[in-house]
Amino acid sequence: MARNAVGFGEDELRTLAGARSFERGVGYLDAVSGLEVGDDAVVARVHGSDVYEVELTLGEGTKTGVSGWCDCPYGQEGNFCKHCVAVGLTVLRQAEIPRQRAAARARASGLEAWLTKLSRDELVALVQEQVAGDRELRRRLESRAAAARGDVDTLRERVVALVDPRPFERFGYVEYADARGYARQVDEAADALRALTAGGQAAQALSLAEETIRKLGEAYGEIDDSDGVVGQAVHAMVDAHMQACRAARADPERLAEWLVAHVLGDGNDVTDLDPLDYADVLGPAGLARMRELAAEALQRSPCGWAEQFLMERLVKAQGDVDALIALYAKDLLPCGATHLRIAEELDGAGRASEALAWAERGLKDTTQVPVDGRLVDYLCARYTRAGRPVEAVSVRRDQFRAERSLTAYQQLRTAAEAVDGWESEREAALALLREDACQGSGDRVGGSVLMDALLDDEDLDAAWREATSGANDRQWQQLADLSRTTRPADALAVYLRLVEQAKEPTGDRAYERMALLLHRARDCHRALDTMGEFPTYVCALRAELKRRRKLMTILDAHGL
Description:
The protein is 69% helix and 5% strand. It has helices at 10-17, 19-26, 73-76, 82-92, 97-117, 120-133, 135-148, 152-162, 176-198, 202-219, 229-248, 252-264, 268-271, 279-300, 305-318, 321-329, 337-348, 352-365, 373-385, 389-403, 406-417, 422-438, 446-456, 460-470, 473-483, 488-501, 508-528, 533-544, 549-557, and strands at 32-37, 41-47, 51-58, 66-70. The longest helix is centred in the middle third of the chain and has 23 residues, at 176-198. It is mainly α.
């Protein structure tokens, strides 16, 4: 679909959201309310499990003609979510949008012209009027005024009050409903610190930001931040701290000490601070001090996750591959995941033979079954590229014997087919699955995986033979679906049994499944030339379940 007057179409929405989120967004069209159209943006609310705020930015400044933001958890991760899709589709369905955008431009232009004509006294009166009716605006302007006159004491008192969670607490805990209000105050505090830095008081802003970040770290454990709004506001505070560091030309070694203490402390759970973001402020001296402190911390706590992460980040930044490998090698996970990380680092450094050796070592050293599948995939890909497909088959064979899963079976098949050896490999693999089924281990592997393997191979005759002893309802239905044309009588018997079972559950999903089963039963009757029996069966079924009005409606919609 070509872009229209608003600059985007359904194709752009589908590209941004992905097929799944796009289809879900279609189902939320009736949930959109409060649509407000501006010159370059549209805002609205979407009612789902909660009420979410959505903002779409329109125009040539966006790559696809539109970008979106939503305060739902998925949207806050930077994704174009189903709520954004719903608002986008609503915009496309409203012919008045171009006119409303033009009207918004005219209003903005008119407002700017009016403000420009006001005298100083009139502007002051207008701001005072707005401040009187907006407590948050008043606090923000008071903080800016304190920053402008260098009143650090007043500003510190204001910032400390803004990040104090106690006014929002109920029984010592900030609940989900109050988290958004608290996050707005943290944003205010960050804005005040930025104003202090801009006013030439960067050193004071730096000290106050560090104190504030500490307080936020202490408070965060008692806040229900399910939507991540408080965490997002804390990131704004970290940005204000970084800005103050640059403006104040913070002492590199002192900053390094503060960063290490923060990253290794409990407070970093909320800030998720990356010390290398400060590299330009730290310089060589600060980075050297940080690495020295990180090495000491790792020696004190060699298994500490935070200590390992910090040292890894510093070594990676230095580009010392051997030092990084030595660091990884101190704590090799039993599943082979660490061996894989080492192999990937060596690959990136152009040391392919060493990388392969580490991956092979990982396969030999692993004590945990199953081995990390990514290590197996890596090894098989390397063997295939190197013209060693037989070794890839061997690795896949061992993986299948350890896992006995359908995925491992499929991967073994792919590898074996590449060397024309699938027939013998298949016989051995199926023998293992039959043995598991006979030993009664079907809950984990056994019959269930045996059936899945036979169905995946479309070996229907063998699947019918095994089904009576090891198939579940999903597999029975899949077998019937694959056999409707070749064994319609057997498939019909399966469908009718599944319809009987489907009488118990209620709800739209269960009723839609029953309709699907009936459609397929009708296909079997048609193949058997017994269509006269089908209406009689459906009439009896409807009579039996006639009190389920929603089921009757769904059957009517399906022509049943």
